[in-house]
Amino acid sequence: ETIPPPIQAATTAGRPPPEAPWGEQLLTAAISASVNRTVFIHRGATTTPAIAVGTYLPRQRAVATVTGVTILPREARIVFANGESAEASLVSQGGGIAIYGFSDVSALPNAPAANIVSFGDLKAGQTVIGITSDSAALTGIVSKVDSAGIHTSLTGIPPGAAAVNLSGSVIGIQGLSPGLFIPTDSISALLEPAVQ
Fold it and tell me: What are the pLDDT digits (tens) for 69-96?
């Protein structure tokens, strides 16, 4: 009688299974994604100081920022993390958020997709990560979620910058009160009509 050839699984028995990302790997990937999506908004030339910080949403070809820090211009120059810049127009605002959009012909840099986490999916105790104006990473937790917004322990994040979870998904945009983030539902509501 013939002995059947060994099955494929036997040839990989000596190799360990691929590792799933773990805490530190998740954290460094989330920080990298957030840094690459943080932008600076300029009125006119980039030689002038930035007037606001924003969050680049590459899939939507848009930037979300917070209103109330300064008067946002209708036309702005957005400077990306890699130093490239592009002209953008203010296309929508409401709920403390402003959205800048880019023309269809604008060449935009690659950045990790900014998946958006709904307000209802957040819970106290979840890890959050934010990027300061000088690109330093801060980690904290969601303290509570209520009608005022997303309360976190991240108090050094500039208005307009995003807080992300360990997957790098955006959970909110820093509002005017330190540590209090505007839920992404406000961004989603503005993006739907703005990018159609």
Answer: 889 999 999 999 999 999 999 999 998 9
